[in-house]
Amino acid sequence: MSLVHEIDYGTPASASETMVTLTIDGNQVTVPEGTSIMRASMDAGIEIPKLCATDMIDAFGSCRLCLVEIQGRNGLPASCTTPVAAGMVVSTQTNRLKDVRRGVMELYISDHPLDCLTCAANGDCELQDMAGAVGLRDVRYGYDGDNHVKARDNGGLNAKWAPKDESNPYFTFDPAKCIVCARCVRACEEVQGTFALTIEGRGFDSRVSAGMHEDFVSSECVSCGACVQACPTATLTEKSVIEIGQPEHSVVTTCAYCGVGCSFKAEMRGEELVRMVPWKDGQANRGHSCVKGRFAYGYSSHKDRILNPMVREKITDPWREVTWEEAFSHVASEFRRIQYQYGRDSIGGITSSRCTNEETYLVQKLVRAGFRNNNVDTCARVCHSPTGYGLGQAFGTSAGTQNFDSVEKSDVVVIIGANPTDGHPVFGSRLKKRLRQGAKLIVIDPRRTDIVRSPHVEAAYHLPLKPGTNVAVMTSLAHVIVTEGLFDERFIRERCDWSEFEDWAAFVAEPQHSPEATEALTGVPADMLRGAARLYATGGNGAIYYGLGVTEHSQGSTTVMAIANLAMVTGNIGRPGVGVNPLRGQNNVQGSCDMGSFPHELPGYRHVSDDATRDIFEKLWGVKISDEPGLRIPNMLDAAVDGSFKGLYVQGEDILQSDPDTKHVAAGLAAMECVVVHDLFLNETANYAHVFLPGSSFLEKDGTFTNAERRINRVRKVMSPKNGYADWEVTQKLAQAIGLAWNYQHPSEIMDEIAATTPSFAMVSYDYLEKMGSVQWPCNEAHPEGSPIMHVDGFVRGKGKFIRTEYIATDERTGPRFPLLLTTGRILSQYNVGAQTRRTENVVWHSEDRLEVHPHDAEQRGIRDGDWVKLMSRSGDTTLRALITDRVSPGVVYTTFHHPDTQANVITTDFSDWATNCPEYKVTAVQVSPSNGPTDWQVEYDEQARQSRRITGKLEAAE
After folding, report:
1. Residue 401: Cβ within 10 Å count
2. pLDDT (tens digit per residue) in 713-731
3. pTM to 2 decimals?
4. Cβ distance 370 to 738 under 8 Å?
């Protein structure tokens, strides 16, 4: 194995379709018009020396190393900023160029430390490489005089020297090694879009500064790593490289955090991970990253990981470590006993949206072929199950319509119920870049998220609706489009059912759906709503991106259908730049749904009642599959409390922390007789488990993830599983203990089975993914290269279906006792229930959940910023510290759910979406009051958790 090297072309590629031919060093080169001479040279295999240029950012032309001679032109133009022209004759290496480049390099080296042998970048330093490339052998200017290198100069303090900034937990900033090429500044601006870095001073006093001369961790820097990746010297260096040394081999794999599905090079020394570097050929992230994927991988080797199986008879007993064979035998015996005693339907399983497609497929197969029922569900139940239902009804398929590249062609972007800069930051950066280029933005959210207004980005409209009124807002937008004649009649007649459109149009045109009529319900001013509707309908390519603020409502499925209506009525479907795009929360939540994790669907979204579909799997698996849908997660918990559901296998999910109404979840788990948790850590659900099976991280397994754009990406093993087995092997051994004759030797064999049984995956194999890099389903004979854009020539269901979307107010109402509305979400540095990110240095930025309260509501209650407050609903109460901010509207409070000591879901209720049972996390009536300590429930929960995590022979449990 060796390092995966990527070519740096120096400047971005040109999108022009017009080709130009020129001559470079005697070689004819044909490239797209607008290509720089530097990139054209690299295409021909000729590398021009450079320092300020890199192909992730626009040309700058400041380092003066990339100069060339052009026949018929005076001077020495910079090759990075000079575009090619037909017939141009370029020389990249002449005596004149050699002298100039050597002189420029002398100036750089005269003000640079000469500690190359002990420098962390030794062997990976572009300055070092370029000194060799230009033939620098001596520095005529010496090293005395003004400099940025020495802390003391001639016995006194050197005002130009600055100390190393070690404040960021992941990388260092050493100003003494900075050559002021501005690559970091430009990467922060052009790639990330944060504008946290700048060049302060002029001339020889110029230096890179974070914020207003702050340290990195105190500045607006979001630690995406773009500056570190862009730096050509050791000025910005990962601390892991300083501690471990340069990597010696790398493996391309896929991030295991959000649904963007970024590709990374895991750079290694032996089996030790040195760093994660975003892969430029990754089609989801295009070489960019966020703080989680780039740096927050330390959880995989954290001391809290449980590496040996454990069992106990009762949840009040301490854990005792056992062998794998004992654990599998115990689970098989218990599940057999439970089914014999309580019936076949008394056990079930929950698949993981953090595990691979192959592992998820095996869990649902275990339930259907081993448990002989359909009691299988996944975390999509509590996030995007309304997406599956709503888009399936309208379009005929349960996934987003576009690839992420599509946003580069959008003219108007609508974001509803999503916070991409925090929840999906790499896509958020790509979106901000498009907005800086002139696209318009409409944000529909009760909270003022960062993207509403950030550097060089401002929403044309922010509609701060009252939580729970999504349907009213979407239907009112449609009212404007229909009544003002802004709909695309040709598209509707060709692609949709015209009679259904007429019925729907008459419905939305009714006066009660006008912006003026709905304003009292939604809190959105009528003129703003009308302006937003007109902009979306007439502004060009219109794209809608939505998140859990749409789906996690009692009318989540209705809102998804309303979004589909808007896209169809304006003709914004079936081409780049448009579409309906759910931003999936977890790395493989799309894949877990694709793999048949719902109790009513087999892989490929085919209902269990379909005889032909069942026949495919019954013949392959050699078992009879029930034609009755199984239990959803809420049904499992209800049945457990009622006494009819007694056993559960949970792979890679923490339902006690992530699911609503924590007390009800705890009661359901406590009523079961055998709960098996398969995870990396003793999570909150494990407090009620009887068996713990250690899991493996994404670094320790082979497989695939499917991201939010339906992209199937390879996950590659970069180190041996610390627990001894990859997760698919654990599930297989459990199946064998139950009596199933499984004998997969590699995950590729599981994917072959998926492809053989699932039409949308028909051409997918590991060999094909190696060839293609990645593909987007459907990938079959009709779409051999995958489907970047869906519904191009027609909808999967045939004609697009317009559906009436009547607003029905949630049963969760405010009143004198609970006058405020709580809504929840994520923050950039943390992920989901925090099991991974809380075990990394990301806690520097978010060490606790905070409750955002509007200043008006805080003043009424005598609450100051940082005060401890009690948050109470009809379901329960908890305490946390207040954050006074006008991001939220009066009457609305907001918190995250990343920390178990807060357990925000003890507040949320059991109200759910009418079609899918997706919980209504986003609307909970609450009261907020000052507090001087934890609630009784928090004290009891903490004590129960502490007792539950005792391990025989150990003083304290892993977590």
Report:
1. 30
2. 999 999 999 999 999 999 9
3. 0.95
4. yes
